[in-house]
Every structure is written in C-alpha cells, then in structure tokens.
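Issue: ligand-bound run for NAP - logging full I/O for the record.

Environment: standard queue, default settings, no custom constraints.

Inputs:
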Amino acid sequence: MKAIVVADQAAGIAGMKLVERPEPQAAINDVVVRVHASGFVPTELEWPSTWTDRRHHDRTPSILGHELAGVVTALGYGTTGLSVGQRVFGLADWYRDGTLAEYVAMEARNLAPLPGDVDFTVGASLPISGLTAWQGLFQHGRLQAGQSVLAHGAAGAVGSMVTQLAREAGAYVIGTGRGADRQKAVDFGANEFVDLENDDLDDVGGVDLVFDVIGGDIQKRSAALVRTGGTLVTVVGPAQSRPTDGLSIDFVVESDRAQLGEIIQRIRDGRLRTNVGKVSALDDAVATFNATERRSGKTVIRVRP
Ligand SMILES: NC(=O)c1ccc[n+]([C@@H]2O[C@H](COP(=O)([O-])OP(=O)(O)OC[C@H]3O[C@@H](n4cnc5c(N)ncnc54)[C@H](OP(=O)(O)O)[C@@H]3O)[C@@H](O)[C@H]2O)c1
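Outputs:
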C-alpha cells in the first residue's frame, strides 16, 4: 500500500516520503481500516512517539497521521462494537503507524461510527481538534454556563472547535489570533476578538478559562488574566513551554468513543461546523505539507477519491 513515512528526525517535514509499505494486520483488539481521509498535525514531527515505541526503541520509518475516516475491512481477535464494512472515524495511537496510508491497524476503542450522511473529509477533520476542544473545555477546564473563555487561535483547527463548543455551553468567548482571522473567528461564534499582533491582550481583563494553543509569551500573559478559581488549559506541550504556576493544565488529547459521538451528532444537526482548509490527494500530500503559504483551517488528505 501507499503510505507517507519519515525516518530522519532532523529533516523535519522535508523528510516526508511517499513509499510502498506492507498492508497492516489486525492484532488482538485491533481493526484494519481502509482509510478514505486522514488528518495530520505538523507538530507530530516533534513528538517522541513519532520516532520511538513505548519502550523508547526506534520505530522508523514511521507512518504519519493520527486521525482518519474510513471503512473497517478486518477485525482482530477480541474486537467488539464494530463490524466489517462499517464507516468509522477516530484517533489512532501516537506510538503506532498512522493514517497517512491506504490502510491502518488500530484499536477498535479508538474509533466511533461515522454516520452515512457525514462525508469522510469532514470525519477526518474532527478527531484531534474536536476531542481536544471537548476535553480541554469540559474535562480539564470544567466549563460552566455563564463563564468567560479566552480562546486562542480561534480561527484555527482546535480554536474554532473551542469557540463553538464553549458558546453552545453558554460561555462568553473572546477569540484571539491574527488580524486577518477576525471575521472567521466571529463567524465561528466568538463574541469578541483580540488581534494578538495589534491589540493589547491585557485589556481583556479577567476570564474564567484560558484555552491556549500558542504557548510562550502569550501563554504567560494569559495566565495573569485567569480569575481566582479559573483555569488555564494548554495543549502546546513541553516542546514550547510547560506551565509551572499550579493553575495550568497541560494535556494530550485521548480518543473517546462517546465524545466522538457527541461531536458527530453536533455536526449532523448543525450546532458544530468543521474547519477544513486544503484538501489534497495522498499523491500530493508531501508537496501540500511542504508548501510555504499560510494555512487556514485543517488540511485533510483524501486518500481515496
Ligand atoms: N496536546 C494535544 O493533545 C494537542 C491536540 C491538538 C493540537 N495541539 C497543538 O495545538 C496547537 C494548535 O493546533 P491547531 O491544529 O489548532 O493549529 P492551527 O490550525 O494552525 O491553529 C492555530 C491558530 O493560532 C494562530 N496563531 C498561532 N500563533 C499565533 C500568534 N503568535 N499570534 C496570533 N495567532 C497565532 C494560527 O495562525 P497562523 O497559522 O497564522 O500562525 C492559527 O490560526 C499546535 O501546537 C498543536 O500541536 C495539541
């Protein structure tokens, strides 16, 4: 099968290659999924799990991509809840070969049913951004109706989900980002917008929850805006910065079938809109990821037309 692999950490995205790899087999509790569409987060290349397995052994060449939508083609021993031919979407294990490939083997519990009226491209755009927003707001941030949320990068993949889910939950949302994204953030539901390059973040005053996707100085300045009893949730990870102030939570998104179901239900009934940017074929994916123009929204690789 065709797959996009990396083997040289120093080469970064330029080291991506489209190659032939053997089709994966289903291990215990696994299913094999024929991938129709796949998502990719560029920061994957910075994660140790892209390069080693859980015992820190080199696992290169590793297949990139960890979110997908597709169709189940085989069930491993012990698999429950899914059947061959079923449409699914979900989040693949960080430490195993991923979804920028024609087939992927992954644990059944990391997948949820994808209803027939939701396109594979939409399904593949949701697992990382949707689950990250859901878990950050409701599990880690314990958001309540009437609270205020500072949603950084509100026009981006995660931020647009944060903005919509927080508004639906009854929060007041202050979106941030670059000036060019003001309208897009407002269209996703931000009540206000702060242009981080031209406006003064300190003018925001106190908020109950900061959802940080940027890190660094912006994260530090945002921490000062959190009201007593509030939370700063960040997803940028230790590579950029690690909060040390006690009020911050730094987490990595996990797959969750029930939450995927909540997200897809909202897509179907119009409460949630996905944020797909460029859509490319697998043959063009390496060029797409290496392109230098500014991305807007989630890049989705359509593995099958
Ligand atoms: N821990 C986890 O589980 C987890 C899960 C998902 C995502 N993440 C991380 O979260 C981050 C965001 O992911 P994403 O997929 O939402 O990315 P994205 O679609 O690129 O969204 C980020 C948004 O923030 C804006 N932005 C970034 N730096 C900015 C700055 N200094 N000033 C103003 N705007 C700025 C970006 O604009 P530009 O494109 O112009 O920079 C973009 O609109 C990434 O670092 C990703 O690795 C972590």
